[in-house]
Amino acid sequence: MSANLAQYTPLRTLNQTANHALSLPERFTFPYYYTPHPVCELAMQQLQQSLLDCGVNETSQGNLYAVLLVQDPTTQELGYLSAFSGLQLDPSLASQLNNINFVPPAFDSEQFQSHNSANLARQSQLADDIKKLQQSHNLDALVAELEELTVESAQAIEAFQLAMTANKAQRNELREQANQEKALGNLESAANLLKQLGNQSSQEKRDLKALRIEWKQKIAERQLQVDAIESELKSRKQEYQAISAELEAQRLFHYRFINQALESKNLLELLDGKDALEGSGDCCLPKLLNFAFEHGFKPLALSEFWWGLPPTDIIRQHANLYPVCQSKSFEVLDHQLSGIELEDNPLIVNPAVGKSFDIVYEDEEIVVVNKPEEFLSVPGKFIEDSVYTRIKARYPDATGPLIIHRLDMSTSGLLILTLTAESNKHIQKQFIDRTVEKRYTALLDGEIHGESGDISLPLRGDIADRPRQLVCREHGRNAETHWEMVNTNNGKTKVHLYPKTGRTHQLRVHCAHPSGLGVPIRGDDLYGYKRERLHLHAGYLKLIHPTTGKWIEFEVPSEF
């Protein structure tokens, strides 16, 4: 139901100059890749000023915030709604930002708690029981003792068997003496000695059997103790897991999302069997759209930005713009934005239209090209045009896979392709063995300290926000880069980068991350600030020719 915007405290009205000086958006923002509409940018600036007024700045706990430009369709009144990413703010931020009225979450916490009070109480009790069982019975100590008993048992039996072997050797010598006595006619003494030796052998075998039984009983008794506790723990843990799974389904059920037709769906329905990523349902835009539709406001445009300190794993720049996380929000927004006309998706527009690349070198075996920026190395999901497709068209009789290595679409520079399967295999091995020498040139969006150095930051894909990479010391793959400063000019730094490994976005992350160079590459729209282009160029390549066996090298200077 439409209402006066002023009635709703989450909304902040824009100043009149902003309302009248600029035209309004004709279509809603394409959420996964966009440039903010000028009016929405003004709204964003107002929210940022409000954050500063509350004492939240670049040194504060970082978080993602967003504004949604909205309009009352009846009165034409214009304003914006604001939201933060996450179910709730960090306590330090919550205490500072209590004067900013963010839109409420999509999760109905009170209803969830009310409908699941028994299961929540049982889950808490089970968690407490599991903890107490592990502590009171000192399960870890019992397991350690069981392992020690097993080792001691093996050692004791082995020592006894070694003694038996030594005793047997002595008995064999005595038997030889008894046989000699027998040969001399001392039949009785020989018979007594042999009987004694036989009794000793039999007794040792009985003692060994008894020793094994004794240790087996000790181990069995301790094993029974461990099994009893583990059985009880297993039962508790199984019940805990079952209740947790039920509560998770209920949690997703209590996330409610509506569209402009006020059709409501919960997150469980929307995911349709897919696992919910951490934070699913708590992103900014779904919350903002919920509030707008609920109160009859027309959504016009979106802008999201990071504010404050960056996290340790994900690269975020203070005050920088960021798109909506597609991995977390696609199913939700597919429902919420139904019937709303969006801006064109720039991700399906071929950026290479009207562009060409120079062939630096070619013979019967290889082709080396200088790829422009914003040009695919290989066909993408939506765009077929690429270096691969154009080379394949130029050399229709080429054999083998052509492509050996790739450059990011936004990276310019040298790319080598092979025209025969044999050459492809030969050069591919050089890349695998890391004998190919590569040098990149990058222009950093700031100044750095030092003349050269090495960066080692393990990387893995961010499953919650592809195609971004994050630093992960637990599960990341080793990534190493050597760097050298070239010069500094007008607050920008030119560097040479020598990747020792070839991980996805390695150079971009190593430059931008605080534990790397701490300054993003200029124009890096994933890890830095969007500019006219990504200032990263693969300018030097040296390898062994697959047929001549001689070293060949190529160099194309960067344009920046």
General description of the model:
The protein has about 550 residues and is an alpha+beta fold. The protein has three domains: about 5-105 and about 265-345, no CATH class; about 130-250; about 360-555, Pseudouridine synthase. It has helices at about 15-20, 40-55, 90-95, 110-115, 115-135, 140-185, 185-255, 265-270, 285-295, 325-335, 385-395, 420-430, 505-510, and strands at about 10-15, 65-70, 80-85, 255-260, 265, 300-305, 360, 365-370, 410-420, 435-445, 450-455, 460, 470, 480-490, 490-500, 535-545, 550-555. Strands 7, 8, 9, 10, 11, 14, 15, 16 and 17 form a nine-stranded mixed sheet that branches. A four-stranded antiparallel sheet has the order 1-3-2-6, with helices on both faces. Strand 2 and strand 3 form a beta hairpin. The two termini are about 55 Å apart.
| Shape-level CATH architecture of the largest domain | 2-Layer Sandwich
Query: What count of structural domains?
Result: 3
Envelope shape: flat
- Look at the structure and give the mean pLDDT: 92
In angstroms, what is the radius of gyration? 36 Å
Instruction: Enumerate how many helices there are, as a single number.
Output: 13
How can the largest sheet be summarized? 9 strands, mixed
CATH superfamily of the largest domain: Pseudouridine synthase
How many DSSP E strands? 17
